[in-house]
């Protein structure tokens, strides 16, 4: 641990495990603010399907990086890294600890360790890969990545075309696996980093996922997705909870099937999140009910 008295406290874990409520309670206890590391919550048009903190939750603690972008804005993990590091400089003037909360492992790693600057691909390569996505579908990109970089394939969100395209671009441009090149050299940070992981027994986690999806439908997910129909070609909307409802609205599947698909795909996403976070021993794991244990652990660790 560095001599610096400043601490970045990461609260990570799979979707629906309860990160938001735990983080708010902890941020209130430590009298600080929260930086979101949930890349789907960056977009202001996507609220219900991304389980953004509601108005009541947001009123309790100041949150950053929630709804700061439009779905049509270009954004990447390197931009997030730079913007968060800049924000932390100002927050650490006021606070000894700040919370970084979310389930997007790549974005958390970028802030904690840095992310390599990869070369830009040739325009012809980018066009070639996008043509494959358009004419052969995301399944073909998944197949290509699984062949070129099976290690990255098992951790990446395989339903996110941006992630697939970027990994394939790097593989083809450098002739090396994306997984072998990213995060190879950890960048120095002038603050301490404490990582907390939240998890539940799988049946309980999957039950919570099912209940959350049902609540999203009750809360108006279909209307939210319907309002975005004219933008459905944007990559930001090619994500769990939106692509399934688009299929329903296009009369390709029934609403019941769409809901079941959301639950299935969300469970798969949760498994990939856990694979990502558990590939390292840097996280101290707790169940969400252990708020007192977490608070005591952080109090001792931040001394």
Keywords:
alpha/beta; Rossmann fold; Histone, subunit A; six-stranded parallel beta sheet
How is this structure best described in words?
With 303 residues, the protein is of the alpha/beta class. Helix content is 51%, strand content 9%. It has a six-stranded parallel β-sheet with strand order 3-2-4-1-5-6, with helices on both faces. Helix 5 packs across helix 8 (161-174) and helix 10 (202-219) crosses helix 13. The radius of gyration is 19 Å and the shape is globular.
Task: Describe the secondary structure blueprint for this structure.
Elements: E1 7-12, H1 19-29, E2 34-36, H2 55-60, E3 63-64, H3 77-94, E4 97-102, H4 105-113, H5 123-136, H6 138-148, H7 150-153, H8 161-174, H9 178-181, E5 192-198, H10 202-219, H11 221-226, H12 243-249, H13 255-277, E6 283-286, H14 291-301
Parallel strand pairs: 1-4, 1-5, 2-3, 2-4, 5-6
Helix pairs in contact: 3-4, 5-6, 5-8, 6-8, 10-13, 12-13
Coarse shape: globular
Range of strand content: 5-15%
Strand and helix order? EHEHEHEHHHHHHEHHHHEH
**What's the end-to-end separation, in Å?**
11 Å
Please give the oligomerization state of what you see.
Answer: single chain
Task: Please describe the biggest sheet, giving its number of strands, its sense, and whether it closes into a barrel.
Answer: 6 strands, parallel
Structural class: alpha/beta
Radius of gyration: 19 Å
What is the residue-mean pLDDT, rounded to a whole number? 92
CATH class bucket of the largest domain: Alpha Beta
Report the total helices. 14
Lateral arrangement of strands in the main beta sheet: 3-2-4-1-5-6
CATH superfamily annotation of the largest domain: P-loop containing nucleotide triphosphate hydrolases
Strand runs, count: 6
